Structures are given as C-alpha cells and as structure tokens.
Amino acid sequence: MPNGATAILFSLFLNTTTVVIFYCIKPRSQPLFNILVSEKHAYNTAKRILFESFVWYFYWILPLAFNDSGKKEFVHSLPGLIPGNLYGVKGILRKTLLMKNLFLLLLFLPVFCSAQTPNYLNYHHQIIQAEEYLVARQFPESLKIYRQLTATYPHVFLRDMKVAAQLAAYTKDTANLYFFLEKAMQKGWTAKQILKRENLQPFKSDDRFQKLLAGEDQFHKTFENKINLTLRKEIKQMLAADQKRALRVALTPGKKWRQQYTMKKFVPQNRVQVRRINQIMDQVGYPGEKIIGDHSWATVLISHNEHDYIYQQLRPKLYAALKRGEISAIELAIVESWRRVVDTNGQEKAFVIWEQEVSQEEAAHADSLRSSIGLRSIALNNKLLDLEKELKMKFYLSPSHGGRIIVKP
C-alpha cells in the first residue's frame, strides 16, 4: 500500500479510537481512571488527546504522503500552519513523549473498555434463575450460576454468597462450600455469624473450616480495604441518630404529642439526612453494600422520608444505582414500596414485599414491577419460604418477611 494511503488510514484509526477513549472514560465506573475525578476532567483529557493526535498526524503521518522534497517543504511550512502560541516545531518535538502515552492508551483500549461496570439487572435475573433451580431441586445447576456470577461481576452481594455456601454445605460440595465461605467472609460475614447457621455445624471439626475461621482478621482487612470506611462511619452515625428519634416517637404517649414530636424533631432531621444521601449519590454513588459494606442503613433512612419532594430526585438515581450494583433489587423494592404505600395512603401495594393478602390484580402488578428490577415473583418467593424451612437454611429473602404472601382467588 502506498505510504500516503497508509498514513490516511492510520490517522483515521488514531482519531476514531481517540473518540472511543472519550466514551470509555467514566470516572465513577472506571477504576483504571480514578485520576479522572469528574466528567469535565474526562472530557478535557479526551480533548487534549485528540489535539495531540492531530499534531502527531500533521508532523509524522501526513508528510509520508509526500516525496522527500515535498516532506521537507511541508515540515518547513509547519510552524506557519500551527499558531506559535500553541506549538512550534520544537514544541511538537517535546510532545513526542505524550504521543507515547497515547500509544499506550490505544494499546490498552480493549482492557479499559472491557472494565466498564456490567449491568446488574442481568445479575439479578441470573439470581432468579438460580433460585428457580433451587426450588426445582436442581442444586448443582443453581451452584453453577452462583459460581459464574463471582467470575463475571466485580461485586457480588453477600446475601447470595451466604445462600450459595449453605447450598454447597447441604449438597456436601466441600469445594464450593469453602469457596463461597471465603467470598462471604471477604464481604463481612463473621465467624460468629457463620457458626449460627445450623447446616454449617457438621463442618466445624474440618481442618479447612477451622483454618478459614482462623483467618477472620485478614478477611476483615480485605473487607475494609474494598469499602469507603469514612462514608460507612457517617451513614452509621446518621442511622443511630434516626433510630434515637424513632424510639422517642414510639415512646411518646398520646397520638397528638407523638405527632408533634414527629413533625418538629424526626421529620426535619430525616430530611437533612436524605438530602445528604442525595449529595453522596451524586459524588460516589449509593451508600449501600458495594460502597460502605452495609445494605440496609441508607435504605432505612430513605424509607423514613415521607411526603418530601427530594425523593423525586432520588428515584432515578436509585434505579441507576441498581444497574451499577450499588443497591440490590430487594432494597430498592423496600424503598419504593414504602414510598408508594405512604404516598397513596395504602391504596397501592407496589412490589408487595410484606406478608399480606393481595388480589390477583395487585399480585400481577407487583410481579411486573418485580421483574423490571430483577426481583423474584411472588410465587417463587413463597416457594423459597417453604424450601428454607424444609432444608433448614436461610435465604435472606427480605427483612420484612414473616410469612407467605397470599393471593386471593
């Protein structure tokens, strides 16, 4: 191929991939670009790279289309083509090192793009598939899905690792048992909590089990290294203040006095807290299990927010956080259900996550909502409730579940 054609094709490739780099740079979801702390920074970086590529194109690539004399003439005229306050010939030569950086970006472009956060809606739908295998007694197939999730997603939810570990114990699949136990301990599951699970008791005397529990301190360090400890402390303090006010509301005698305390003390505090959560979501994402190592604290705080316009700003951010794996399907359903029930004075049952009786129409509506966020159907939920009693396991279906959801004929 002639040198000129090669130069043109290469320059097209160079500048096209520069645009792709711009779209691959996502500060919140791209750990390889933590230095890019804002979208504006990412944009400016991409713009700089694009300009550098054009400089490289003019100085090194385009002259290849000329013969020797034409190349010399082009290079000599280059200072007139590029404003002096931007680049001179010497300035271009000094930018050679930056061209090397661009080359490295192009080299690792497939890695950068593949590191984009996967859509966690797919994760939750795969969990539903694993749960369907569970109720069908196809335990190996269920374990296979849980194992695949750990290889596919950078963050897996602790609840799912707990279920998988118990299922592996039930089927006496020791390889998977210790694999999922280790994953769960890295997510914050403590030795004390593990020993409370009845179906894990038979393995207490196993050397591998003892060795795993003995490494709890190291697992806890791994857990803390993966979360935002400062933010975790802040949200925990917010929850403590919330619960203090909530207890005071519960202990205040008389409906009138209780309502007065709620409106004067509890509601103003909660609105400040939820606005802070809204700010946190704009900065780093939803402060849930993935970011602070706890799934419920922020959920409780948002659930206590009633008749407040701020939730209209929060709602789309919560659904976006679901797709990034920052909030689980059940936690989103708890927040949304509570809000819809309160806003409609109990007329809408929303996702139907509490033990209750509902009509077929309400159940169908709830199942539609559940499917949209990757949450199991009411029927599957009821089957899992029955199965965990039969197998003496705990599936952590919801903190609000006390029993089956009854669909009236």
What is the topology?
Layout: H1 3-24, H2 39-61, H3 68-81, H4 89-94, H5 96-107, H6 109-114, H7 120-135, H8 139-152, H9 158-170, H10 174-186, H11 191-195, H12 207-214, H13 216-225, H14 229-251, H15 255-283, H16 289-292, H17 297-303, H18 310-324, H19 329-343, E1 357-358, H20 360-373, H21 378-391, E2 406-407
Parallel strand pairs: 1-2
Helix pairs in contact: 1-2, 2-5, 7-8, 7-21, 8-9, 9-10, 14-15, 14-17, 15-18, 17-19
CA gyration radius, whole angstroms = 28 Å
The helix-and-strand class reads mainly alpha
State the major sheet. 2 strands, parallel
Helix content: 55-70%
Mean pLDDT level = 80
Q: State the order of secondary-structure elements, H for helix, E for strand.
A: HHHHHHHHHHHHHHHHHHHEHHE
Poorly predicted regions: 1-12, 14-43, 49-98, 102-106, 108-114
Terminal residue distance: 75 Å
What's the shape? globular
Summed up, the helix count is 21
* Number of E-state strands: 2
Main-sheet strand order equals: 1-2
How much strand? under 5%
